[in-house]
Automatic annotation (TrEMBL):
Gene3D superfamilies for the chain: 1.10.1740.10, Winged helix-like DNA-binding domain superfamily/Winged helix DNA-binding domain
GO molecular function: DNA binding; sigma factor activity
Descriptive protein name: RNA polymerase sigma factor
Region annotation (Disordered) ranges: 164-185
Phylogenetic placement of the source organism: Bacteria, Pseudomonadati, Myxococcota, Polyangia, Polyangiales
Domain RNA polymerase sigma factor 70 region 4 type: 105-155
InterPro entries (alphabetical): RNA_pol_sigma-70-like, RNA_pol_sigma-70_dom, RNA_pol_sigma70_r2, RNA_pol_sigma70_r4_t2, RNA_pol_sigma_r2, RNA_pol_sigma_r3/r4-like, WH-like_DNA-bd_sf
Amino acid sequence: MRADALFRAHAAFVAAFVVRLGVSKAEVDDVVQEVFLTVHRRGGFEEGGAKPTTWLAEIALRVVSTHKRTERRRRVVPDEAALDRAVATSQSPHEIAEHRDALSRVQRALDSVDVDRRAVFILYEMMGESCDDIAQGLGIPIGTVHSRLFAARRAFQKAHERLVRSPSMVERPPAGAGAGAGGEL
């Protein structure tokens, strides 16, 4: 499949994936463009073992990792418009504020997970990919998928519980956020 056809079919998927990996809203278009430039340089997608989405996720993961290495990590500011859309309009202002805080806690907890583990977590838990597809798409053994998923779930849960106990932490990035403090699995 050619890069332009992949872009039309999967640009929204790639954008959602990189946002969940912690790319700021202001940088999403640039990162998505870099992903599809990489796809173009590779000559498009060859039908085979991986699905297009997991293959694109592998490329996006590498682009995001490079992007984060070359750019100083900035504080992620929640996208207010996206938060507003996620909250029902029939709710009271208090309920809307509570939902915004909850969504912000989830994103902060997600941001605290090592990027390789976060990618597996997002693909499996949020985007519904199978472990086999993730392994093929990311080019890693199935055991690594399982161990990263286990570690990501544990890290996410601990971070989320910490944020629930200390709501003021929602506004501050956790120490070492996304720095891969847990080591590579």
